[in-house]
Amino acid sequence: MKTATRDNWRKHLRTEWLLYVFLFPGLLYFILFKYVPMYGVLIAFQDYSPFLGMSGSEFVGLKHFERFFADDEFLTVFRNTLLISVYKLVWGFPVPILIALMLNEVRISWFKRTAQTLFYIPHFFSWVIFGGIVINVLSGTGIINTVLVFLGFEPVLFLGEKAYFRGILIITDILKESGWASIIYLAAITGVDPSLYEAARIDGAKKRHEIWHITLPSIRSTILILLVLQLGNILELGVQQIFMLYNPLVYEVGDIIDTYVYRVGLTEQKFSFATAVGLFQSVVGLVLILIANRIAKRYGGGVW
């Protein structure tokens, strides 16, 4: 049995060798930049010093994890990270699906191309640029406050108000990324068998019935796979957006694990502490993605 399997593998390698050539750069990238750096997590269990290196630094066990969990700010940053991630998932995850469904129904080609371009463009702006636009719009002398003052209202410091800050993060993230994320769903929708829609129309189905009973079930596996992948990054919001928009006035509701690591771990050169927090994020993310994948497999959408 083993010999037959080995022969089949060798035959496949000879006939499909070009596919492996194209696959090799991707594998090399993940090995060099994802797996090899994993050796660095040992720093989390040391009092690391750049001058002594990993081999010369003192091993301290779980000291930095205990310090992080005992820190008064731990519950605040963990709660902020979890809440903002859940809000983005609940409000932001359905938006690309809705955009793809709407674009799929557009029959005027020039309008569809224009709409797609407008939806996609924000993705290509870095958060430095996009965040600058948001700050200019929401600042005390920005467009919104100018209109409010013109209408007789008092100006509002949106980026300095705790009540508004999380909402601003969610809305700006949706505006920037939802159009680009819709590409995958739009590609999945185009693969749906047109005969299903024709049969539904013959039976008298309305457009909403076609979407609910044909389109969405047909792309269910794609939706579940992307949901699983997004759950795996639920504690990794990315430091760029929040770092560009937040300030000390909203630390209580906007300070997340990534910004906390930057402020406390890296700016103060506490490399071991920063690594310990990052390892904690990764472990939680791994657990969440395994749980989500197990649930998704029951509905035919598991990744493995």
TrEMBL record:
CDD domains per UniProt: TM_PBP2 (cd06261)
Q: How does it sit in the membrane?
A: Multi-pass membrane protein
PROSITE patterns reported in the protein's UniProt record: ABC_TM1 (PS50928)
UniProt keywords (A-Z) are:
Membrane, Transmembrane, Transmembrane helix, Transport
Q: What are the record's GO terms for cellular component?
A: plasma membrane
Record field: transmembrane? 20-45, 82-103, 124-153, 179-200, 221-243, 271-292
Keyword Transmembrane found: yes
Task: Write the protein's name.
Answer: Sugar ABC transporter permease
UniProt lists the family membership as follows: Belongs to the binding-protein-dependent transport system permease family.
| Span of the signal peptide | none
GO biological process, any: transmembrane transport
Where is the protein found, in the record's own terms?
A: Cell membrane; Membrane
Keyword Transport assigned = yes
Question: Which organism encodes this protein?
Answer: Paenibacillus oceani
InterPro entries membership: MetI-like, MetI-like_sf
The organism sits in which domain of life?
Answer: Bacteria
